[in-house]
Amino acid sequence: MPILATAVVAVAFLLVVYVVFLYPLLLAFIARRNALPVRKDSQLRSVSFVIAVRNGEKFLARKLESILALNYPRELMEIVVVSDGSDDGTDQIARSFAHEGVRFMRIPRGGKCAALNAGVPATSNEIIVFTDVRQTLDRNCLRNAIACFGDPGIGAVSAQLHIRSGESADEHDTGLYWRYEVWMRRNMSKIGSTFGTNGPFYALRRSLWTPIPADTLLDDAWLPLTAMFKGYRLILEPTARAYDYPTGLESEFRRKVRTQAGLYQILRTMPDMLSSRNPMRFHFLSAKFGRILIPYCLIVIALATFGLPQPLRRIVELCQLAFYLTAAFDMLLPDGFFLKRFTSPIRTFLVLSTAALFGIKVYFVSPRTLWKETKVRQAVL
Prior knowledge:
This protein is of the alpha/beta class. The chain has two domains: 1-34 and 251-372, no CATH class; 47-247, Spore Coat Polysaccharide Biosynthesis Protein SpsA, Chain A, CATH 3.90.550. It is 46% helix and 14% strand. The protein has eleven helices and eight strands. It has an eight-stranded mixed β-sheet, sandwiched between helices. The longest helix is centred in the N-terminal third of the chain and has 32 residues, at 2-33. It starts with a helix and ends in a 23-residue tail after the last helix.
């Protein structure tokens, strides 16, 4: 028993270290040695923006203004706003942009996917751009993303999302986590495909559009992945930039529960993600599936510790106790305290790992209950 417990603890610990630290370094090495080019061109293709929104009155006007200010010929752009049963001032704001050619649709509340399924057929241009209401766009965002479609092997292009500077330690650490995520996606883009796109802004060839199942939690993963299985690459274009507000850890936890629940959905509806049909299977297992396993590994380590021989058991117990108490202690420290640099990342890691564990709720509750409004502090760019 002590030998088995030792082996279990070692394997679980090494898996966590591999997923969080070693695999990202391996990915960066592979991307540096085996980068695939993207053959860009300067052709200005026709583009249809589809904005699905529910109760977005705080952001919609600014979002539409940022689209209208893009460095792109207006005659090649159409913009459709789909209100998903909004009960605030969203509809009135959208209608007020009619003189700018913005088209408005209202549907009964049915969720984001229902809004997209209603909005896309109302458009006709070559490239569909899906963009959320909250984020604003750099003037050259669209032009730089569209250039990637000069490569016939590219199916979808994401903008790189930049999080505005946060004021609290929570906001700083969630922003740091997002930069880590973007770094991973940039490297995956270099060697093949990402496992989805950035929901705030992604462009898709119209020929690859297919209606999205109503209860899908990650439209920005499900839809692009159908293109990947048709032989197309999904990439992130660093020069196409979008900007978002900082979020705190509580809001990020709710978002992470939904995204991890969406990953469980993907595994159920797209079992080929784990098969040889997935050209990025090794990377999917290492990056995405591995993150699902992290909270289970932490639980296994805690339980298997009781079977360890002394004095190893006492050492492992003390290490775990120190790790979890450090995260708890972080909640008591004021922002700006020097220890926050050490304690806050540990707490963030544990909170997001817990969110990955809670994602399994998607098998027991209606997926729609996992959609929660993301609360942000509206900082000035």
